Amino acid sequence: MSDITEPTRTGRDIPPVAVSRTTTEVNPTGSWKYIQPRYEDRVAPCNAGCPVGIDVEGYLYMLGQGRTREAISLLLDENPMPAVTGRVCHHPCEDGCNRANLDEPVSIHGIERRLGDMALAGPAPEPPERTREERVAVIGSGPAGLACAYHLARLGYGVTVFEAAPEAGGMLRLGIPEYRLPRAILDRQIDRIRGLGVEIRCGTKVGTDVSWAELDGFDAVFAAPGAHVGKDARIEEAEGTGTIRPGLAFLKEVNAGARPDLGDHVIVVGGGNTAMDCARSALRLGSKVTVVYRRTPVEMPAIPQEVKEAKAEGVGFLFLAAPSAARIVEGRLRGLECRRMELGAPDESGRRRPVPVEEGRFTMVADTVLTAIGEDCDLAFLPGGVEVVGGVARIDELCESTVARVFVGGDAADLPRSVADALGSGKRAAIGIDHWLRERAGESPPPLDTTALRFGSTGNLSADRLRGTDPIPRTAPVNEVVSWEEMNPAHFARAPRHEDHFHATADLAATFGEVNFGLSEKEMREEAERCLNCGVCNRCELCMIFCPDMAIHRRADGDGFEIDMRYCKGCGLCAAECPRGAMAMSREAR
Amino acid sequence: MSQTIIRDRIPKDELLASGHLACPGCAAPIAMKLVLKALGPQTVVTLPACCWSIIAGPWPQSSLRVPLFHTAFETAGATASGIKAGLVARGDTETTVIAWAGDGGTFDIGLQALSGAAERNEDIIYFCYDNEAYMNTGIQRSSATPWGAWTTTTPVGEPEASPKKDIVGILAAHRIPYIATASVAYPVDLVQKVEKARTIRGMRFIHILAPCPPGWKTQNDETVDLARQAVQTRVFPLFEVENGTTWRLSMDHAGEPVAPYIRRQARFKHLTDEQIERIQTEVDERWKRLEIRVRHGG
Amino acid sequence: MKKVMIGNHAVSWGVQRSRVEVISAYPITPQTQIVEELSDMVADGRLASRYIKVESEHSAMAACIGASAAGARAFTATSAQGLALMHELLHWAAGGRLPIVMADVNRAMAPGWTIWTDQNDTLSQRDTGWIQLYCETNQEVFDTTIQAFRLAETVDLPVMLVLDAFFLSHTSEPVDVTDQEVVDRFLPRREARLKLDPEDPHAFGALVRPDAYMEMRWQQQEAMREALRVLPEIEKDWEALTGRTYGAIETYRTDGAELLLVTSGTITSTARHVVDARRDRGEAVGLVKVKMFRPFPTEVLREALTGASRVAVLDRNISPGHGGIFAEEIRSALYDVPPERRPRLFGYVIGLGGRDVTPSVIDAVVDRSLEAAEPEREDLWVGVEL
Fold first, then answer.
1. Does A572 touch chain B (CB under 8 A)?
2. What does each of the 590 residues of chain A score in pLDDT, given as a tens digit?
3. Which domains does chain C have, with CATH numbers?
4. Structural domains counted in chain B
């Protein structure tokens, strides 16, 4: 007879009181979740906005960790001349910087410039190995041509650059004044490119000194002759006086060392960087300068810092006015007739079109008028098959023209015009040329997925991505730009931005020396700390700190985090608190 | 504060194990985890009936890696006093003894034992993690429930009619050595206050706001942001009180309007604009009184 | 060392000799002298104990529970309303298997307000899992206090030692206060098997599901049974050291008794006189004193009472809706005795609210118990004058 009243020994070994024997780790509370987190790095807006395709957030990340040499190396992987761009680039990276929503954008250009100068102060890198037989001809040693040469050399190719002017640099030397870009810096930067084994033949104009046919010995050609023909301002009765001049021609003179006397009153027509360069150069030559621009300050395409410095130096500005006729007296220019403008409907650039005001005519005193309203290209030397539309060559994404083997970039191609865009096009062309040459050599290179090589959908291609390297540990990156709304600013403290050290000296006439000294090394590092590392996990550990379930751990094997899905309940606090939007939640693991 | 500073100021060792039974997104385990990090392993915890009685895990489990004594609802202050006396009597003067109670076991049923321990200046740290209702038993009101809130015993037809009890004021009147308020959204502040409390002898009280997704009717991933917003709207300001007389704010409080904080919690969904105005007025007045105490002492 | 002292102080001296480590107590008449004397002892260093002057009895027990859980020897004292206030935690101490010792001065429960003695306060707690020991003299109080710690720590159950309000608590009697080193030989330092220890962290008292709760209760019950077995051994040790012993029950002149009185507390002393007088007159009347009420000493009581034809239980308590509590429990203890040997049981409710139980009252009870054929009711109330 079984006796249910006798206690049985089951081996459960129940203690006399409820004293614990295990932790709660026996409970797989991860089974509760219906959504789960993952680390997913995104593209920062600075990267997405950089026409050069620099991994800006990459080198800022490294700087934040004190890895300065690696930061410089990463920067040089993409940008051949950071000491130049840090000084002259219009920095769309800063325009997109998410930090602007918190206080002020990071001074990326200031950091880049300081890193560029540090790179130049250090030893030159070892020349790359010549691993390819092919030789490429580059026409033009402006930023586009130099960038293409640089990247091709680093890809192992032989490169010869043909430069029409006596010295290399293109618009960098001819168009940008010394006070913005000291010659010594430009020279050293170009020397570094020569040091890679690139041959630059100056004083050699293709179409004149060298025929197109003589380039047949090169396996590919990259044409980047630039745009050097100043547009006609169509000012009545301008002809023949010599004192209404295209601004670019004036700049070339001055940048070559000339110091012409422009008279007491100079008017510069235009609102872009060339106009600012003309105005500030004319100022340095002793004239009073007024910039006349047909729209308002908001529409001016010049870099705001340039405008600020021009104003600080004493350049006058007149907005919503445009020249209509020259006032010539006794064969000499005396004044400029202008009309007041008002803004009407937007034109094809998206900006509101200026419309003359009926009664708004007036005259300004002028001894010299410099027009800086845009430049045209001289593409006569290109073979006939290269399609030219609107004065610029038609190209594909990799700068290949309508003629095989011929690639076009920089201002000569259908591209936005800036130093950065030129540098970017040079890199793209190098990538395109490399791919084309390998195909032609029968190597069947894997197809180029330019989407994968870009930062976001708008950033330029990355040389590091082409190589398959990512120097910062991005986790499961997606090629989407992280918006401010996806970030959590609660964990960021405000910090004022370091502005460039700008010394507008009283006596400018004597000097075309640098007036903007950028940031000190200490300020550079502090600026780099202001970078929010948008979209990239910087190991701040806030996900770990806020996880209620201790389900996030540093990876034992290395950097980064792993999520223990046995315990993660899918609450989403990690992703919600991630300051930089580097996490995402979803129903299933991707 | 930069986040690397946050990371470097939070001790690394985990004294709380995964697999505990808190709801997803609950602030209570975040609070406990941070507190235990600050106190270290030489700690004994006693906790009365509250959510943490369940979160800790049923027998034979425990989610704490330090000794834990479950005790009756109203006894946290008294049991902690006894544990401390027992340890000292056995020669252990170093172990920190803490009481860990919810708002019910602190503001209501546990108030007497808490007052007794405070009046005797017992050498314990009493933590109240406050989710503003009896959440463990299914969201009934407590005297910590804010005015106007829905709970199951203050339904929408007749929501909470009393203002939240001023527990800090009550304890300040006891003139205990140290009182602090803290929020899980400011982990460094919380950890620093606990580390400071650990070095003080006598009665210490730390009041931590712990938003509760099911009870406040918010999303699981909003908890930390709510705990932040409560501070920045001055609904739950962060400050310290020493000896009941010296009051010190822990940070700048932006003074954001309370309406967004209130509106995002569906437990307040039924409130009219006028009622939210009234809440704003009350928050402003309480803040003014706090400022006076900070300036002139309490 | 012999001293004349009130019962309350006998408790204090027992506690002092037991080297209690934590006391937490709240004052209530007629317990106050216990804690006042202990307060003095702590203040002048005769007792190295931490004394927590809690703000209620509920907190007093909570603090004892905490201290005991931390491995310390803990003590408290209370009475009536205070004990009732502790009720919830009495379960906690017993279920938590904490060897706390508490002295309760039997005081009647309010309303009406009263400070005088009856046993309802402690007997209301008989289901909480505490061992209950009822004392007759101040010497017994002193001895039982010390034995209580040894018993508690042997079986890991809390022990309540009980003394009548005023009749013992405030009455002076000579007490031989055993020397400290003798007591030390009898009662070593407590070494808890399970305790709150950061070196070996555990949680105590978490949620227990139906599949394990019963096993823990069963072990608690086993410990009660163990207490019955262990008490005689403990008493033997004490007797060897002091010459004094008491037993779970004591039989007094019960040989061949026709009527056996059953008493507890100070009524026992009075009843002894009555038994002596009756025996002197040749009447076969004896006395059984019940000391241990929980665990209920069923076997020895049954043995002691079987054989007499009548048993008169004197209950200084009442369970409203039933009868005197000792009577009810003894009645059920005698249930299995074959009917021909089962004594007729008279349950008398007597002395509630401190009403004096004099020898003549007990005499009347004896007479009535010998004369009446049957008890007309379960509970026979003595001396009610409406």
1. yes
2. 678 888 888 899 999 999 999 999 999 999 999 999 999 999 999 999 999 999 999 999 999 889 999 999 999 999 999 999 999 999 999 999 999 999 999 999 999 999 999 999 999 999 999 999 999 999 999 999 999 999 999 999 999 999 999 999 999 998 899 999 999 999 999 999 999 999 999 999 999 999 999 999 999 999 999 998 877 777 766 555 567 888 888 999 998 888 998 999 999 999 998 999 999 999 999 999 999 999 999 889 898 889 999 999 999 999 999 998 888 888 788 889 899 999 888 877 777 888 888 888 999 999 999 998 888 899 999 998 999 998 999 999 999 999 999 999 999 999 999 999 999 999 999 999 999 999 999 999 999 988 889 888 888 899 998 888 888 878 888 889 999 999 999 989 899 999 999 887 666 655 788 889 999 999 999 999 999 999 999 889 999 999 999 999 999 987 899 999 999 999 999 999 999 999 999 986 65
3. 2-242 (3.40.50.970), 249-381 (3.40.50.920)
4. 1
The CATH number of residue B12's host domain is 3.40.50.970
Q: A539 is in which domain, residue-wise?
A: 30-123+469-590
- At how many degrees (to 10) do helices C87-95 and C57-69 cross? 10
Structural domain for B82, as ranges: 3-296
Residue A231 contacts B, CB cutoff 8 Å: no
CB contact set of A557 (below 8 Å; sequence gap of 6+): none
> What six digits make up the tokens of A89?
């680039």
First to last CA, chain A: 61
User: Does residue B111 belong to the interface with chain C, where contact is any CB pair within 8 Å?
Assistant: no
- ipTM of the shown complex: 0.96
Question: Is A493 in Cβ contact with B25 (below 8 Å)?
Answer: no
Window 29-48 of B, Cβ < 8 Å to C: 41-44, 46
Residues 6+ apart with CB under 8 A from A85: A52, A79, A109, A112, A113, A116, A419, A420, A423
Tokens of A100: 């602007």
CB-based contact A566:A28 (threshold 8 Å)? yes
Q: How far apart are the CA of B137 and the nearest CA of chain A, in angstroms?
A: 21
* Chain C environment of A18 (Cβ under 8 Å): 203-208, 212, 216
pTM, two decimal places: 0.91
Minimum Cα–Cα distance from B35: chain A residue:
A545
- Give CA separation, C196 vs B16, B61, B82, B125, C279, in Å: 17, 16, 12, 17, 57
Query: Residue B294's Cα: distance from chain center in Å?
Result: 21
Nearest CB among A25, A542, A577 relative to B19 is that of A25
Are residue A110 and residue A170 in the same domain, yes or no?
no
Cβ of B61 within 8 Å of Cβ of A539? The answer is no
Number of domains, chain A: 3
Cβ-defined contact of A20 to B60 (cutoff 8 Å): yes
